[in-house]
Amino acid sequence: MHLGLLTSSAVPHDFSAAIPSPSISSFQLGPLTIHFYALCILVGIIIAIVLTNRRLTKRGVEDWQVLDIATLAVPMAIVFARIYHVITHYTDYFGPGRNPWNPFEPGSVWAIWEGGIAIFGSLIGGTLGAWIMCRRLGLKLTTLLDALAPGLILAQACGRFGNWFNQELFGLPTTLPWGLEIDPRNPAIPPGTPADTLFHPTFLYEVVWNSLGALVLLYLGRHVFFQWGRLFAVYLMWYGAGRIVWESIRLDPSFVILGLRTNVWGAIGAVALGALIMIVQWKRHPEPEESPFLPGQEPEPAKD
What are phi and psi of 273, to 5 degrees? Predict the structure, then answer.
C-alpha cells in the first residue's frame, strides 16, 4: 500500500534544497568501531530510563528502581527486536552464498550494528522482561508502562537518527524540498532510478511524529484517567497510527501479506491492541490507581 499523496515520480532535483545524508556511519576509537546507529539507540535508552525513573518516583517507587527492571527488559527488548527483524526479512540473511551465522561476515544475523531493530519485536521482549521484573519487585506492570510511555516514544525518535546515519529505511522518491539525499549505490534504490533522485525522509517524519507524541503523553499523563495502562494504550495507538503511514511509503524490501507490508500489519495490530487495552482497563478499573505496588507487596514504612 502506498499513499499517493506523499509520493511522486523519480525526477532530477536541485540538491541545494535537500536534506543531506551523513557520509559516514561509524568511527574508530582505538581498536573499536563505534557505530552511530548504536549510539542513537543508547541515547534513547538513557532518555527513557531517566524520564521513567522521574515519573515512577513521583508515584512512590524507590529512586532508580527502574534500573533493576532495565537489566532484564532492555536486553530482552534488543534480542526480540533482532529476532523479529530477521524473521520478517529472512531473505536478507538466508540463501545461496550467505553465511548468516558468522558474526564477522557482513549480513550476519548477529551484525546488529548494520541496522535491523524491529520496534514491534522490542515491545514484545521488553514488556515480557518488564513483567518478570515487576513481579519480582512487587510493582504493577501497568504503573511501569504508563510511566515508560513518554520516554519510550522519545527513545524511538532518537533511534530513528540511526537510520539516517545508515542511509536505510528511507521512503519513495519525491520532489518535495525536504527530500533526502541517498548514495546512488545504495542497494535499496530500485534499478534505473536517476542518480540525483531524492527520497522521503521517513526517519524525520517519525522523529517529528514521536516527539509530538511524547508531548501529548506527558500532558495526558497528568490526568488520573490515564492510569491502569491507559496511557500506554494511547502510546500504542499514536505510534501505530504513524507507522502505518511511514511503512506504507518506505522502499526497503519486506514481506507482503494481503497487499500490506508485515510492519503495516504490526502497526495496525498496535493500534488495535491499544484500543482494546483502553476499553478493557476502563471497564475493569474506573477508579484511580492509588498504589503502584501489587496488593500485599507495599514497602514497609521507614522506621524512625
Answer: -65, -40
Q: How many CA atoms lie within 13 A of 221 on its CB side?
A: 28
Q: Which residues are bridge partners to 19 per DSSP?
A: 180
Domain ranges, ordered by start, for the chain: 33-169+196-284
59 annotated as a binding-site residue: no
Grid cell for residue 202:
521517513
d(CA 270, CA 164): 24
Q: Would the pTM count as exceeding 0.70?
A: yes
Q: How do the pLDDT tens digits run along the chain, 304 residues long? A: 444 334 444 444 455 568 999 989 888 888 888 889 889 999 999 999 999 999 999 999 999 999 999 999 999 998 898 888 787 776 666 666 666 665 666 667 666 666 667 888 999 999 999 999 999 999 999 999 999 999 999 999 999 999 999 998 899 999 999 999 999 999 889 888 998 899 999 999 999 999 999 999 999 999 999 999 999 999 999 999 999 999 999 987 777 888 888 889 999 999 999 999 999 999 999 999 999 999 887 777 655 5
> Strand 173-174 to strand 198-199: parallel, antiparallel, or no bridges (unpaired)?
antiparallel
The CA distance from 56 to 146, in Å, is: 9
Kindly report the number of other CB atoms within 10 A of residue 10's CB atom.
18
Q: How far apart are CA 182 and CA 200, in angstroms?
A: 10
Q: How far apart are CA 200 and CA 172, in angstroms?
A: 6
Pair 272, 243: CB distance under 8 Å: no
